[in-house]
Design a protein that fits this description.
The structure is a homodimer.
Chain A lengths: L3 E6 L4 H11 L6 E7 L5 H8 L4 E3 L8 H14 L4 E5 L7 H6 L4 E5 L11 H8 L3 E8 L9 E8 L6 H25 L2 E4 L2 E4 L7
Parallel strand pairs in A: 1-2, 1-4, 2-3, 4-5
Antiparallel strand pairs in A: 5-6, 6-7, 8-9
Helix pairs in contact in A: 1-6
């Protein structure tokens, strides 16, 4: 895996900003080659351009199939020699053309301690369930939603007076810390997958 | 809720010991009136007797129905004026006679961060799933397995070289801390249930 990132967004891309900042301040040794949004109005596009990063929209509308859309993404990513694809609020299911082109090289961040509260609205689900801790999961992307090997998790305490927004805000702060760290782990390449487990090098999971 | 506990066990009752120790050292203001095992050979019975606590076996065999067994438990608990029922490795599903007799007054401890990894073998499930954090959940017991309102959760980091036994050991240490603490919270009575949420007094969960 080279150190060239492609970032996929659909909205403001606050985790994109976390990656930009981590690179800028030397906490992450990587380059963002391109930011791609499926929506023209994603404010993250402007965020990228302001950081001097190429930012393009590839709308998900108008394709004959979802696979065709995915193939268009792969074309743009490969053209720029992207080695690791970072999802940052990309609100599209990743299909097999993209998964096949980037095996174990697509990463996402989710605002809960997976496997609890997969899918949308994870923070509200956690609050409604009454958990006392939630958090952040950075994981490799597979065909199953929010189900790939877990690279890193960070814990956020749930407070009695939390509302979904206050909990989401605190979780987001941890996302901004966790995501660049996990991307750095991936790029360092000293890891392997055993079963579902993401393990660092020179450790064994002998059972 | 008075401060008289009844503890139900099926085995060694290490969480029973944690309650005994917490009471002995003044960290938990409570009395254990009786320890009941469904198995004659549970070593926790001897543990209780050594601490001067009445310990009896009520086998789950030989009853006409599961409800009859549960009613027998209720009789023994009520006879001793038990206010809070603590499960400590009690390997029986709690049925409606016991649930109805002790509404929001039966507590259990589970070796995972629920709702992840309910049911048996939670530590191995967590390891196989590849989570980076697991932990302990103390919760009120309802008719659904491992699903009642969560009183307290404590986090345990999962290490790359963990085996199910090493993870279970570290989680057990946290159980021994969490369980007496949660029982103390319950006995203090400054709490309420909102939806599924267990909330401390003088906090509001305004949404």
């Amino acid at each position: 895996m080279n150190r060239i990132l492609g970032v996929l967004i659909s909205g403001r891309g606050s985790n994109l900003q976390a990656l930009i900042d981590a690179i800028k301040h030397g906490r992450l040794d990587a380059t963002i080659a391109v930011v791609i949004s499926n929506r023209e109005d994603a404010s993250g596009l402007e965020r990228a351009r302001q950081a001097g990063i190429e930012a393009i929209c590839i709308s998900h509308h108008g394709w004959l199939s979802r696979d065709d859309y995915d193939r268009a993404l792969v074309d743009e990513l490969r053209r720029r020699n992207v080695g690791l694809v970072c999802l940052a609020g990309f609100m599209r299911v990743v299909g097999s053309p993209l998964l096949d082109a980037y095996p174990n090289a697509i990463v996402n961040v989710h605002p809960s301690l997976l496997p609890s509260f997969a899918g949308v609205d994870a923070q509200r689900k956690a609050l409604d369930h009454g958990v006392k801790v939630s958090g952040v999961t950075v994981h490799l992307v597979t065909a199953e939603l929010d189900d790939g090997p877990i690279i890193l998790q960070r814990v956020v305490r749930v407070l009695d007076d939390d509302r979904p927004e206050t909990l989401a805000d605190r979780i987001l702060q941890e996302e901004h810390l966790a995501y660049p760290t996990a991307v750095g782990l991936l790029l360092d390449g000293e890891w392997r997958i055993e079963g579902r487990r993401f393990l660092r090098a020179r450790t064994s999971a002998a059972r």
